[in-house]
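Q: Give me the 3D complex with copper (II) ion.
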Amino acid sequence: MACRAHITFLAFIVLGLLPGIALGAEPFVPSWIKNVPAAKTVAIEIVADWNQVERYRRDNIRTDIIDFNGYWGGNLTIIVPADWSVEITFINGSLSFPHSLMVTRVYAQSEMPVKLTAKDAIWGAHTDPPEGIKYKERRQLNFVALQAGKYFLACARQTHLMDGHWIGFEVRNNLDQAVAVVHDDKFPQDQPPGRP
Ligand SMILES: [Cu+2]
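A: Here is the predicted complex, encoded as C-alpha cells.
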C-alpha cells in the first residue's frame, strides 16, 4: 500500500514536471510582439540578421545563417489571431546584405522558388522593394490576417528563401493574443538564442 502511494506520488511529480520539460515549445509573448486586444491589433518588430550583429559582437566571426530576430529555417513560428490587424516594423540589421519581408504560402524545401517575387505575396503583404532594403533602413508592413492557416514570413532577396531566411507564420481562430513558439528541434544548441 505504501508502495502504491509512493508510485502515485511519483506520477504526480512527473506530470508536474512535464510542462517544464516542454517549456521550449510553449507559446510566449516576446518583447518584440505588442498585443492590443481591444483594437484587435498586434505590433511586431522584426530585425533581419539580428543575430548576425550579435555574433559579430560576441566572437567577431561570420556565419552563413541569415535570420529574422535570430530565428531562421522555420525554427520559430509567430501565431496571430484571425481577423486581427498586423503591423510589422521591419528593420534590416545586416551589415552585409539587403533583406526584405513577405507573407507567402508554405513551401517544402524541394519546391521553394529560386527567388520570390511580388506576386508570391499573400494579401499583397511585402516590403518594397522585394529585393530588399539596406542596413538600418526600415519599412512598415500592415495587413489584416484574413484567413486562418499556415504561412511563411520570408525574405524575397535572391536565394534567401532557399537559404533558410524564413520563419513560420500562422493565423489561428479563437486565439486571444499573438504569440511566438520556438521549435527547439530545429534550433542548434551551439547557436546563441534568438531575440527574447
Ligand atoms: Cu534575406
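A quick observation: Residues 66, 99, 155, 157, 160, 165 surround copper (II) ion (CB under 6 Å).
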